[in-house]
Amino acid sequence: MELRQYFQIIWRRVWILVVITLAAGLASLAFSPKAQTSYVATMRFLVGVPPEPSNTSFYTYDRYYTWVSSEYLLDDLSELVKSDAFAADLRQELNKDSAFDVGAVSGERSTKKTHRVMIVTFTGKDPKQVQAVAEAALRVLKNNASSYFAQLGYDKAAINLIDPPIVTPQVSVMRSSLDMVLRTGLGFIAGLALIFLLDYLDTTVRDAAEVERLVGLRVLGEIPRQ
After folding, report:
1. Residue 222 forms part of a structural domain
2. How far is CA 4 from CA 1, 9, 10, 155, 174, in A?
3. CA distance 130 to 26
4. In terms of residue numbers, what domain contains 159?
5. Is the same domain home to 13 and 46?
6. Are residues 55 and 157 in the same domain?
7. Helix axis angle, 84-94 relative to 127-143, nearest 10°?
8. What does the pLDDT look like over 155-169, one tens digit per residue?
9. Cα 61 to the chain's mean position, in Å?
């Protein structure tokens, strides 16, 4: 079958394709959830250890190992922030504020490493809660650094804030838009499938070309359409 024959099949019942595609698009638009606004607080840290005091007159490569230790600390701290132990310390810190409802805290926390800088992000639906959680996390990291990295000795790990937490809104419209496009596309495919199914079940002969294809004989005459 030639490509133009496929086009003719679709064109005969193109109204089916239009109706089903529009219905799928309108239904998706009507029933898709509204775009929700979430709030994100992002802060950046420098993590490291101070170099040991030099008691010798020769070079000990201590500053080199200080940079290497900083990278290891950053790896560990990135995983620590995502741990249950840090979450427990965070809840305990938030409990100190009697005006804050710890049970209402909902959201996500994530980390990202850029060279020797750690980026910590908190996400939630309430901007005040997100700000409070970020500030509490900052206090936990600074106050508990010595216990988190006890192997370094007392007061050795240095966690320095370089960008304070700033809450910004984020509207999640991408997912709902993609869902609507996908549902509309599925409606289009369903319309095409229905058109070809109806054409397969239809036994009507419409033109001389179909007669020649079906019976294998050449048509000698045809009554023109009025």
Report:
1. no
2. 8, 9, 10, 79, 37
3. 36
4. 37-171
5. no
6. yes
7. 110
8. 566 778 888 888 888
9. 43
